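Anyone able to model this chain together with ascorbic acid?
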Amino acid sequence: AIEDYKQFVFAFLAAVSFGLISIIFVLTWVLHYREGLAWDGGAAEFNWHPVLIVVGFVFLQGIAIIVYRLPWTWKCSKLIMKFAHAGLHLLAFILAVIAFVAVFDFHNAAKIPNMYSLHSWLGLSALLLYSLQLVLGIGLYLIPVAPVQWRAAFMPLHVYSGLFIFTAVIATALMGLTEKLIFALNNPKYKDSPPEATFVNVLGLLLVAFGALILWIATRPHWKRPSEQAL
Ligand code: ASC
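re: yes, here you go
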C-alpha cells in the first residue's frame, strides 16, 4: 500500500511538473519569441489564445479530472470534492471561453475569416461538448435531485466523455501550435528549424506528456477514491 502510494505521488508530481513547465513554455513563447500579451485587437491579443488554452483547457481541466484520486483528500467529504472537481472545470471553461474570444476578436480586427480550419472546428466542438458535460455533470451529480439510478447509469458516459474531451483538447492544441508555426515563421521558415520552431515543438511534446500522465492516473482502478454513499 505504501509502495502504491509512492507510485501515485510520483505520477501526480510528474504530471504537475509537465503541466507547469508547459505553462512556462507557452508564456516564454508569447513573451520572448512573439509580441507579448495585451487586449488591443492585435497579435498580442491573439497570444492570450494559446496561453489561456494551456493554462485553462489543458492544465486546469487535467487537474480537475484527477482531483478525486488525491489520497490526502479522501478524508474530505464527497460533496467538498465534487465542488473542487466542478469548480476547477468551471474555471477551465471560463479561461477557454476567454481564449476563444481573444482569437475571434483578433481575427475580426485583422479581417481574417473565422472557423475555416480543422483546428477551429475541433476546438469549438470540444468547447461545446465541454459546456454540455459541465451542465449535465452539475445537473446529475452536484445538485441533489437526480435519482441514484440515473447517476449510476450516466457515470460511465460522464467518465468516458471527460477523458475524450480532454484528449481532443490536447490534439486540437497540437494542431494549433503547428498552424501558428507555419503561419508566423517567415525568414527563417518553419522548415528551416529556427529556435522558436524547436521550442514550440518541445511545448507540444510537453502537452502530450502531461495528457499521457493524466490519462494514466485517471484509468488506474486501484487509485480511485474509496467508494461511499453518493452526496
Ligand atoms: C454520484 C456520486 C457517485 C455516483 C454514484 C453513481 O452522485 O457521488 O459516486 O453518483 O452514486 O454512479
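Residues 105 and 111 are 10 Å apart (CA to CA).
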